[in-house]
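Pilot study result, target chain (184 residues):
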Amino acid sequence: MKGIFLAIALMVISPCLFAQKVSISTNIIGYASLGTLNAEASYSVSRRWSIVAGAKYNPFTFRKGDTENQFQLRQQSYSLGVRVWPWHTLSGWWFSSKLRYQEYNFGGLVSRQTQEGDRVGLGFYAGYTHMLSSHMNIEFGLGFWTGADMYKRYSCTTCGITVSDGTKAFILPDDLAVSLVYVF
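Predicted structure:
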């Protein structure tokens, strides 16, 4: 009997606990980056603060097997951070900071050289979220990230001849975003 009462209580209370606090989004512009899949989840911890976690994934190699014309922008990237909302979470202007890890392999786009490696760093972002309806938002954002890049550079996309390797600092533009956001 207690179990049935608890189950009914959770069904009644749970929509109130998550109402307008949880969102998931995807950056439409991110797909233009050679099909990079992406998603971000957000949880509002107060009226002006939210926690965000995101992932990007691109496993695609184009013209594979054609050593002269093969190219790729492969990556898997994970981020965790916070957003501050001057007015209210999930609406209006926001500023964000994220810790980020990226494993990447790109090459063949501008030159035949390929670079792969791991990046770790901190990103800074700003944007605006416009409410379309009670459960749908559109978000515009822009940011950059900086950190350490542990890389290896090869002379071509398939040969495996190492040109250089090492660790270097970087500052890169990141997340030019036009995202669709679903708010629970």
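One observation from the pilot: Residues 124 and 165 are 27 Å apart (CA to CA). A full batch analysis is planned for the follow-on phase.
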